[in-house]
């Protein structure tokens, strides 16, 4: 079983396209992997007999040989950026010469892109939205611009960008992200000021919530209790200061509000598995520690 990190993407073609309900948008299969990014949404996508709405910033991800059709009204044409690529064979990419077969012809493709067994790839959806992930959306548009504008090393640049984008997409799909606007606003405040030792009471007042409901909502949205999240912020800030500043361990403990170096050192070692001094001497020790954040 392959890991997604073992991919060797090759972007064979990228083109803007306007879907207008014409006949060639009916049921068909393609010989390569494909993505269709719709900046605006007004239509439906059919994949293996199931229809999905195409909303604003919808992303369609198709596998080689997967039956699909676009259901777009001629009165409301829909613009898209279409990417055709291989994922597992950059040496002999099929996406340079992709083939479509349309129903009612038999779906018998010749050469198709290599499709390796990969649970992580299988977990990625056929139709999703990048509406709530503007960074992924802009990164995909950046790939479009590089394809259109690059003159030198275009293939090398684009294939590297596709590799990074796919991994970022997988990460985004499997990372818990708060959605409640009050918690989102609070977390942005905390990330900007990690060294402030504000009480958790101040947090629920900032959100305009009762103590009980705030604790329930915070845990549901973040996966952490407020105290555990606060401790995580301090430890992450401590690691950054140890790595990137010349402050002494004592000064860092003081900066984070500890009364002395000793409780700070105990907390850091318990959280990361190495002492602050050991981490500063060898930052990679934190990554190799079973207690460290991965």
Helicity, as a percent range: 40-55%
Give the C-alpha Rg: 24 Å
| Assigned CATH superfamily of the largest domain | Regulatory protein AraC
Instruction: Provide the CATH topology of the largest domain.
Output: Jelly Rolls
Summarize this, please?
This protein has 2 domains: 170 residues, Jelly Rolls (Sandwich); 108 residues, Arc Repressor Mutant, subunit A, CATH 1.10.10.60. It has 11 helices and 10 strands.
Give an account of the 3D structure:
With 294 residues, the chain is of the alpha+beta class. The protein folds into 2 domains: 4-173, Regulatory protein AraC (Jelly Rolls, Sandwich); 181-288, Orthogonal Bundle (Arc Repressor Mutant, subunit A). The chain has 11 helices and 10 strands. It has helices at residues 119-122, 134-149, 154-173, 181-192, 200-207, 211-222, 226-244, 249-255, 261-272, 276-281, 284-288, and strands spanning 10-19, 28-30, 33-38, 43-47, 50-54, 58-62, 68-71, 78-86, 100-102, 127-129. β4 (43-47) and β5 form a beta hairpin. α2 (134-149) packs antiparallel against α3. The model is unreliable at 287-292 (pLDDT under 50).
Topology of helices and strands:
Blueprint: E1 10-19, E2 28-30, E3 33-38, E4 43-47, E5 50-54, E6 58-62, E7 68-71, E8 78-86, E9 100-102, H1 119-122, E10 127-129, H2 134-149, H3 154-173, H4 181-192, H5 200-207, H6 211-222, H7 226-244, H8 249-255, H9 261-272, H10 276-281, H11 284-288
Antiparallel strand pairs: 1-8, 2-9, 3-6, 3-8, 4-5, 4-7, 6-10
Helix pairs in contact: 2-3
